[in-house]
Specification:
about 70 residues, about 55% helix, mainly alpha
């Protein structure tokens, strides 16, 4: 009951997609890692580094910044 639907913005894309052909043709860019493999590696990294994730989620990392740079507002 708290959700209110609004009209979509004019020209708003319903999906976002990238066509990498221009960067490939003009600059010779080729990704070193396939998207699917990079995504899987990223998910694995977060699973392996759960302590780091928890420190970010809890705000614990802010103690480091406070010690290095003073209180940040």
């Amino acid at each position: 009951e708290l959700i209110r639907f609004v009209q979509d913005r004019p020209g708003h894309d319903r999906r976002y997609a990238i066509d990498g052909s221009k960067i490939q043709e003009e600059l010779g860019f080729e990704p070193k890692v396939r998207f699917e493999d990079g995504l899987a590696d990223t998910v694995d990294w977060y699973r392996t580094n759960s302590v780091w994730v928890e420190n970010v989620r809890s705000g614990e990392y802010m103690k480091y910044y406070a010690a290095q740079y003073g209180q940040m507002d």
